[in-house]
Amino acid sequence: MTETSPSWHKSTFSGADNDACIEVADNLPGTVLVRDTKDRAKGELTATHAAWSAFTAFAGTYAV
Question: Where exactly are the structural domains of the chain?
């Protein structure tokens, strides 16, 4: 069995000063991980791909 490591990338809404950033790893089978860029020690939020897609679609309707 092959284990895949998370491939993290910053949110496209991250500001230039990185004061409110999240990182997302969406390369894992069946799972999306989300973490705070500035405090990675807090761990990750885990969601299914369907739940993450629904969340980002909903959040996108409120983007400034």
Answer: 22-64
